[in-house]
UniProtKB/TrEMBL annotation:
Gene3D superfamilies: NCX, central ion-binding region. It comes from the Bacteria. This is Cation:H+ antiporter. InterPro entries: K/Na/Ca-exchanger (IPR004481), NaCa_Exmemb (IPR004837), NCX_ion-bd_dom_sf (IPR044880). The keyword Cell cycle does not apply. GO terms for cellular component: plasma membrane. It is found in: Membrane. It comes from Salinibacter ruber. It is a multi-pass membrane protein. PANTHER family: INNER MEMBRANE PROTEIN YRBG (PTHR10846:SF8), SODIUM/POTASSIUM/CALCIUM EXCHANGER (PTHR10846).
Length: 317
C-alpha cells in the first residue's frame, strides 16, 4: 500500500514536470519560428496544461476503466471551480469582469450541460465526441478572432506568467530534450498515476469512480491551482478566472471529445444521478456569487472550499 501511494505521487510529479517541459520546449520552438505569443498561449500553453487529464484518461480507457476516466473529468471540473477559485478568493477577493459573465462563463456552463446530456444514455459515443470537437473548433476560431482584434499588449499582459518559460534562444538540442522529455514524463507519469490509483482503490475497496473524482482529479488539477494562485498573488484576476473557465472547456471539448471518438466512454447510473448534478451545481454557483457585485469575496471563497471538502468527505462516507 505504501509503495502504491509513493508511486502515485512519483507519477504526479512526473506529470507536472512533463507538462512544464513540453510547454517550455514547444513554446521556445514556436517563438523561434515567429509564431505570435498570443497564438502560442492559446495553443501550446492551453493544450499543454490539459495534457495531464488527457493522458490519465487515455491510460484509464486502455485499462478498461471508464469510471476512473469520467470521474477524473467531473472531479477536475469541480476542483477547478470550487477548490481553485475558492482558495484564490480566500487569498485575495476575485473581481469578475462583466465581459466574462456575459461571454466566457455562459459558454462554459453550456458546455457542462452538453456534457451531462451526452452522458444521459449511459455512453458518450463517437457522435457525441464529434459534436464536442466541432464546438471546440468553433470556439478556437472565435478565440483567435477575438485575440486578433484585442490589443497585443493587453493579451500579453494577461499571459505573462504562462509564457515566462518560452526561450527562443535555447539550443536546438535543448528544445528537443524539453519536448521529448516532457512527452516522456507525461506518459510515464499518467501511467503510474492510473495504475497505482487503481491499486490503492482495490486495496481500500473504494469505487474507481470515487478515486477518479477525488485523488486523481485533484492531482491533475494541481498545475491549474498553482498557476491560478500565482496569478492571484500578482493580482492578475482575469488570468485566474480565465484559467478555470478554459480548463473546464478543454476538459470536456478536447479531452472527452477526442477520446470518445476513439473509444466510447461508459457512464454508470450513480454518476449520472449524483456526480454530474453536483458538477453542474458548483459551476452554476458562480451566478449568485458574482452576478450582483461581480466579485467572489473571501467569505464566499471559504464557502466554496468548505462545500468542496464536504463533497469529498461525502464520497467516502
Amino acid at each position: 500500500m505504501i509503495l502504491y501511494v509513493f508511486l502515485f505521487f512519483v507519477g504526479l510529479l512526473l506529470l507536472y514536470l512533463g507538462a512544464e517541459g513540453l510547454i517550455q520546449g514547444a513554446s521556445s520552438i514556436a517563438l523561434q519560428y515567429g509564431i505570435r505569443p498570443v497564438i502560442l498561449g492559446l495553443t501550446v500553453v492551453a493544450l499543454g496544461t490539459s495534457m495531464p487529464e488527457y493522458l490519465v484518461n487515455v491510460f484509464a480507457l486502455i485499462s478498461g476503466e471508464s469510471p476512473l476516466a469520467i470521474g477524473n473529468i467531473i472531479g477536475s471540473n469541480i476542483s477547478n471551480v470550487a477548490l481553485i477559485l475558492g482558495a484564490c478568493a480566500v487569498v485575495l477577493p476575485l473581481a469578475v469582469t462583466p465581459e466574462v459573465l456575459r461571454r466566457e462563463y455562459p459558454v462554459m456552463l453550456g458546455v457542462m450541460v452538453l456534457f451531462y446530456l451526452c452522458a444521459l444514455d449511459g455512453v458518450i459515443g463517437a457522435r457525441d465526441g464529434v459534436l464536442m470537437v466541432v464546438l471546440l473548433s468553433g470556439l478556437a476560431a472565435y478565440v483567435f478572432y477575438d485575440a486578433h482584434r484585442t490589443t497585443r499588449g493587453t493579451v500579453l499582459e494577461s499571459m505573462e506568467g504562462e509564457l515566462d518559460a518560452a526561450d527562443p534562444d535555447l539550443s536546438t538540442l535543448a528544445k528537443a530534450v524539453y519536448v521529448i522529455g516532457g512527452m516522456g514524463g507525461l506518459t510515464l507519469g499518467a501511467h503510474l498515476m492510473v495504475d497505482n490509483a487503481l491499486a490503492i482503490s482495490d486495496v481500500l475497496n473504494i469505487d474507481h469512480v470515487v478515486i477518479g473524482l477525488t485523488v486523481v482529479a485533484i492531482g491533475t488539477s494541481l498545475p491549474e491551482l498553482a498557476a491560478s494562485m500565482v496569478g492571484t498573488l500578482k493580482q492578475e484576476v482575469d488570468m485566474t478566472v480565465g484559467n478555470v473557465i478554459g480548463s473546464n472547456l478543454l476538459n470536456v471539448l478536447f479531452v472527452v471529445g477526442t477520446l470518445a471518438i476513439a473509444e466510447p466512454i461508459t457512464v454508470d447510473p450513480e454518476t449520472i444521478r449524483l456526480h454530474f448534478p453536483v458538477m453542474l451545481g458548483f459551476c452554476a454557483l458562480l451566478v449568485p456569487l458574482t452576478w450582483w457585485d461581480q466579485k467572489i469575496t473571501r467569505v464566499e471563497g471559504a464557502f466554496m472550499v468548505i462545500a468542496f471538502l464536504g463533497f469529498m468527505v461525502f464520497l467516502y462516507v
